[in-house]
UniProtKB/TrEMBL annotation, chains A, B:
Natural source organism: Prauserella cavernicola
PANTHER family: BIFUNCTIONAL UDP-N-ACETYLGLUCOSAMINE 2-EPIMERASE_N-ACETYLMANNOSAMINE KINASE (PTHR18964:SF149), ROK (REPRESSOR, ORF, KINASE) FAMILY (PTHR18964)
InterPro entries found in the cross-reference section: ATPase_NBD, ROK, WH-like_DNA-bd_sf, WH_DNA-bd_sf
Stated family: Belongs to the ROK (NagC/XylR) family.
Recorded superkingdom: Bacteria
Segment forming the signal sequence: none
Protein name: ROK family protein
Gene3D superfamilies in UniProt: 3.30.420.40, Winged helix-like DNA-binding domain superfamily/Winged helix DNA-binding domain
Length: 400, 400
DNA sequence: TTCAATAGTCCAGTAGACGAACTAATTGCC
DNA sequence: GGCAATTAGTTCGTCTACTGGACTATTGAA
């Protein structure tokens, strides 16, 4: 409910619609009676509201389910897996991943497009996204899903739906939603709203939604090339005053002096970034070949005790732990999740980060753990922003 | 509006009441017509709502004011400076400060009680607060103000209205509101609700409210003895998962090794804390005499180029800047305010902190400035939490 | 078969915002 | 002075959407 807007009966209705939709999403198959009980609304109102949600295709009635005692059995309601759905894209310098998500949160389809180099002209990314979108739109068509939104996760600073600055992609002030919307029209899917979001922030959202921590404050650190953090506070991403919150990659590390893409020297990215780390461990050719699978070689080297690799990883862990150790006392998070390319570095790396972090701030009560989510979390989280927006504001959808 | 609660006409009314009260507070003397325009409510509704606020003593009608053109002149409404008011206390190891604030935000009275040592038994603080409270209650009585709440700012971690841990005071798991409420009853002011809050967080609130920055994200760093930060995001304090957000005093500084009260060595407090700094500058006797005014001697020494003092202050600035430089890229604040004893260290100190911060994170767009607020901001901010709670939820007050 | 229990619908009642019509008070023009 | 224009504020009937109790529906158990 907007704080500075008047509340009329309509807003009241909107709020209660959202409340019921949210509860239906949370409780899975659920009866109107239970919804009434959990929401605090009366049965009559819930009948009315669920009726609207059913008509709008957000809910579906599955026959009377259990019969665990006397009394009329309930007509169970669930989110409609056939109705509205969302597409999420993840764009990185070397690939575009995408997925189609229905309202229940199930991934209906995935798609991946590898590419040589998507940096420079944003149209390259649009072009690489096209086959991914085409496939997902086709799938949606065949599964009776209606795509109501496309959300894109990018390693970029985003402000007012515009990419203000993307280090790793070389973009600046790009209205990417507009570019992609154009391509969507060409695919016969014009008018679908496109949103963009920072991929670190989406990854943090993903950990909050799917990580199972029930955290009040969660910090996710990771990234494909550049390192970055996403901060979730009370279920909301903290984007910062300019959308730049979590940009840790260019914090200077004492003792480091390698040149960074940003023009400075000794940035965290030059010590703990994926490419920098592979290079420092003597895996230059892996970097050049751009093989994501090559990440596996580094933990293998470390496991076999290869001195250069061990030193590089230890150095990265110490630097990262120190930076995070400055963050933790400021934010007091429940959980600090290491994601992106970091979990692949092995549990020794995780332990070393933890150690270094606690050396910086001894009393910290934070739990540090590796992410357990798959590589395409960002695409999934992006798609989830579409579906959860529907559930959080069903009235907007019903109005159409 | 509670997210998980149903909205009925009553909640609708509560919301709109708060909306009108907030606007009246923001716009100063304001007509019903303007309130209707600004709020988006109709004139009829505003008449109804302001009527309730007038009856409840939250608003007051001052005669028809301006007559800048044709048309019936407006009956101006203002917050009632005579009705409900709040008391704010600030408790530190060596003093208790307090103030009485009316709804308009005007300080009706102040009181200060110096004390030798309030650490150890919380009852000492209660005892020192008694004369302060007595005076402020008397003042309220004579100015026709009704004290509706007492809010206390403490250098302590607070959780569920309980002091979980107070480093500088030596308290743990203390239900301070209960203790102080007891004393209030003895003063004939029983039943007044008492709340507690962390003083760093209150200081940040104060900068956000009174600092004039219009910041979306604001960080305040300061403290009397221990250093700490308060973070305000979108008008709300970020307290962290355990209420420990902003506890920067015990971040370890590379190269520092002095023992800290926390049992560790090399904490930020041992480098940039007030006492540590005075000691390092050779002003031991000032520390022992507990003279707050003694702070003036340090900038004087620095100004005169006294080598030890200059070195101590520079070291403190570097350490603090480095710690803050780790924070800024994570949070992306608009403004970083240095408060507490820090502004007294002079503008060279401020510049040195700024320099060190930007050395750590070169691209930061944050504005760094010294606090311009007086020493008793925390008491004022505490009192403001009482009065602003009234304005944010007038229905609760009107119900009584 | 009947009763208890639970699910769900129906409908009159009600709180509270809206809007049009009204009254009120002032300026400015004749 | 009188009257139109203009803005402030109130009154009252209307409308929306939630409530609560009466009602129907469907099951298990006695």
């Amino acid at each position: 409910m907007e704080r500075d807007a008047p509340v009329r009966p309509v807003q009241q209705h909107r709020h209660n619609l959202a409340l019921v939709a949210r509860l239906a999403a949370r409780l899975g198959p659920v009866s109107r009676a239970r919804l009434a009980h959990e929401s605090g609304l009366t049965k009559s109102t819930v009948t009315q509201l669920t009726g609207e949600l059913l008509d709008g295709g957000l809910l579906r009635e599955i026959g009377t389910g259990r019969s665990g005692g006397p009394g009329r059995p309930a007509n169970q309601l669930v989110l409609n897996s056939l109705g509205p759905a969302g597409i999420g894209l993840q764009i990185e310098a070397d690939h575009v991943a995408g997925c189609l998500l229905d309202l229940t949160g199930r991934v209906r389809d995935r798609a991946l497009r590898k590419a040589d180099d998507l940096t420079g002209d944003p149209q390259r990314a649009v072009k690489a996204a096209e086959p991914v979108l085409r496939r997902l739109l086709n799938t949606a068509n065949s599964t009776d899903n209606v795509v109501v939104g496309v959300a894109v996760g990018l390693p970029a600073r985003v402000r007012d739906a515009t990419v203000v600055h993307a280090d790793g992609l070389g973009w600046a002030d790009t209205n990417f939603p507009w570019l992609l919307g154009d391509r969507l029209s060409a695919l016969g899917a014009g008018g679908i709203p496109v949103t963009v979001a920072n991929s670190h922030q989406l990854a943090a959202r993903a950990e909050h939604w799917f990580g199972g921590d029930e955290a009040e404050v969660l910090v996710h650190v990771g990234g494909e090339d550049g390192l970055g953090a996403g901060i979730v506070i009370a279920g909301e991403v903290h984007a910062g005053a300019r959308g730049a919150a979590g940009e840790l990659g260019h914090v200077r590390i004492p003792g480091a002096d390698d040149p960074c893409t940003c023009g400075q020297r000794g940035c965290l990215d030059t010590v703990a970034g994926r490419r920098a780390l592979l290079r420092a461990a003597g895996l230059d050719e892996v970097v050049r070949s751009r093989l994501t699978g090559g990440d596996g070689e580094l933990p293998a080297l470390v496991g076999s005790g290869e001195a250069v690799a061990v030193a590089a990883v230890r150095r990265a862990a110490t630097a990262l732990g120190t930076v995070l150790g400055g963050l933790v006392p400021a934010l007091d998070p429940d959980v600090l999740v290491l994601g992106g390319h970091l979990p692949a570095l092995g549990s020794d790396f995780l332990d070393a980060v933890d150690l270094s972090l606690r050396q910086r701030c001894p009393g910290a009560a934070v739990r540090v753990r590796a992410s357990r989510l798959p590589a395409d979390v960002v695409a999934r989280a992006a798609a989830t922003t579409v579906t959860s927006a529907l559930i959080e504001a069903p009235a907007d959808w019903l109005a159409e």
